[in-house]
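Re-run with default settings, no changes from the original entry. Doing this only to confirm the output is reproducible before filing.
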Amino acid sequence: MNVENFPLNVELFYLVNHTRNELLDAFFGYFYLLGKGYVLIPALLFVLLFKRERLKLFILSLALESLSVHILKVVFNAPRPANMLTNIYLLEPLYHKSFPSGDTAMAFFLASFFSSESPALLKVILWSYALLIAYGRMYMGVHFPIDVLVGAIVGVTSYYSLYKLDRRKVML
């Protein structure tokens, strides 16, 4: 099922992907690595060392986010932009399932988790990180806007739904 082949999604993708700049190419050529799964290692270590009381919430929220992304990718089996469109600036060659963006989901999960008990400046940094990961996925040519939007929703929802249960003492 192709949830990505509608005009606004394609137009917005081209708008972001065709806004080329050498500095942005260099920046996103490295920054995208902060959206990969190994970023979870220092995040988990931080939780273990400094926020142990939130460890179960972290692990369960992360599991919900990861499972949700995986199920949606299997159910929709949506093609990457490079499989559907021509004239794409592709900075990270990926050709398998596109919808939703797992990197974006993880970044928004991390921003949600760590910003819920953080000072204002750190919240700005965390949400900027998540937004830059989302934008970068389109800039690099590997995701459509709908992919990153749904990824962001999955990441935020995975955390806040379990956070609310935790606050009500239903889950943890």
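The chain has a mean pLDDT of 93. The radius of gyration is 17 Å.
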